[in-house]
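Handout, section B. The chain below has 345 residues.
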Amino acid sequence: MQKTKPVIAITVGDPCGIGPEITAKALSNAEIYDMCCPVAISDADVMRQAVEIAKVNLKINSVENLEDCKYEYGTIDVLNIKNVDVEEIQFGKVTKMGGEASFQYIVKGIQLALEGKVDAVTTGPIHKKAINLAGHEYSGHTEIFADYTKTKDYCMMLVDGDFRVSHVTTHVSFRQVPDLVKKARVLKVIELTNEALIKMGIKQPRIAVAGLNPHSGEEGLFGREEIEEIEPAIKEANQIGIQAEGPVPPDTVFVKMRGGQYDAVVAMYHDQGHIPTKLVGFKYDDKLGKWGSVAGVNTTLGLPIIRTSVDHGVAFGKAGKGTANPESMIDAIKLAAVMAGGRSK
């Protein structure tokens, strides 16, 4: 079938988790097909099972090649990898089979994107222990994508609508953070953030750079990272035409972005960026014992391909029950379509 919209490959994640289910639910949304041509990278039998679990009225079109995809609402095109026996799936369990399957889905998605056969990859949730159990020593999606695309300089950005946060450091101990907040790294993340915002359709991005220390160091009283590393990076970013401000005290910078003053914040470490983003996008009701909203997207900047992801885990406790919330998957697919369109322009 001839296509005019971007093709988005969806790697469904660990089949023992909620990934296949939320993929099925997301692709029951007609708006997705208005924006892009989605294809699930999975096992056809896994997606047939997911359609039943999700209770959505969708057909499965199992294909060996992308040329055979229909890209029609009402039918999920599945690039059939054939590496799972659905009779052996153990919902909610860490398994070698689940780890191997999810890893091979990712590798295939990366391959297709590098070959230009798909315009972006959206990833479902994986379990790090399962991946490692299958013999693949990676700490997560980001590291797999960086390795297989031979990318050295990359960073994580979380997105929830107009709330966007990129990170100078992520999965390291808090003790290591100050040693990693260096001018070159901060400048690179500012540059990657600016490029991503332009792909998202923002012509002149306004970027706030958070301080590392309380009150952004209070002129050196609480630390000198702002003076010696962060401020010089901001100054150099301004010199090359990027509209970056800071270091802005981290206890107010996110409030200012939410109020419309900035298009994105560059955070210095994992929790500095993740906590406010999830406070905005996630809603939990303890009385009902369930999540009302699980919004937000994780995207990796700096790769030669576009990659977006759900901003949550495998949710083993919900796997196989049909109660998983597809909101983050829907958002991730839509963002991939927007960024793919922005890059082509």
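Note. Residues 7-151+303-344 form a domain with the Isopropylmalate Dehydrogenase fold (CATH 3.40.718.10). Compare this with the example in section A.
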